Amino acid sequence: xxxxxxxxxxxxxxxxxxxxxxxxxxxxxxxxxxxxxxxxxxxxxxxxxxxxxxxxxxxxxxxxxxxxxxxxxxxxxxxxxxxxxxxxxxxxxxxxxxxxxxxxxxxxxxxxxxxxxxxxxxxxxxxxxxxxxxxxxxxxxxxxxxxxxxxxxxxxxxxxxxxxxxxxxxxxxxxxxxxxxxxxxxxxxxxxxxxxxxxxxxxxxxxxxxxxxxxxxxxxxxxxxxxxxxxxxxxxxxxxxxxxxxxxxxxxxxxxxxxxxxxxxxxxxxxxxxxxxxxxxxxxxxxxxxxxxxxxxxxxxxxxxxxxxxxx
Length: 312
Ligand SMILES: [Zn+2]
Ligand SMILES: [Zn+2]
Fold this sequence. Notes:
By secondary structure, the chain is an alpha/beta fold. It has 7 helices and 10 strands.
């Protein structure tokens, strides 16, 4: 951590800051991890010293992206935002040119509309069948508003591979146990895409406790389709995880995904018309004579039985 200490000294001396070195180290690591400072800040080969202005600008940029007061200071709200559960994908690098807070595209998309996925590694403490159903629900959120289709496979090559992993798992994105980073994903590419969930999280369904697997999956699938983080707080593509009991996509999410894949056309919508009963025509009826015995008295009754037909 010698490199980070160098930077801290510069900041403390240059900015005359009262920020604790430990907090600053954490903040520097966070800003580097999520794209506000060069990744070399976390690298052992880091040799340059960042100016206090560079670091202050990075803090300001993070505060703006997170919807905080843009002070450039490492205040309590900023530290709290940096410790909130979130997605592991970088925030920066895919900003839209507009000044309004809205969706952002990473820059790649799938040319094929019929996509496949498989769950290569299931969670260790969550039902396998429920994992299948929550992931299916998550993909359907996106296929409901686009012409995309998603089919689960159990083997062979697929468009999107899903795994539940812990700690260091070979792609450089280290999971950090419960809280912090919950999941991460890659964008569309010739090599396909993947979504990784932190297996150490307490994954839950329809609950305020733990981490809602369905909603985190909707977010990560958004990345695997080409959406970057949105600055709009109500978007499912915001970097933070917040459980919504009555989940639905924000208009920003729908605009973002339809700008990539267009909207689902009427004829592509699975449409099952209501079955309306038709009045029975005479040809569908026939009369029958029925005998019944009520209180030892035999009755002969005529009934008219009709077969109702339905529009198909
Ligand atoms: Zn994300
Ligand atoms: Zn990973």
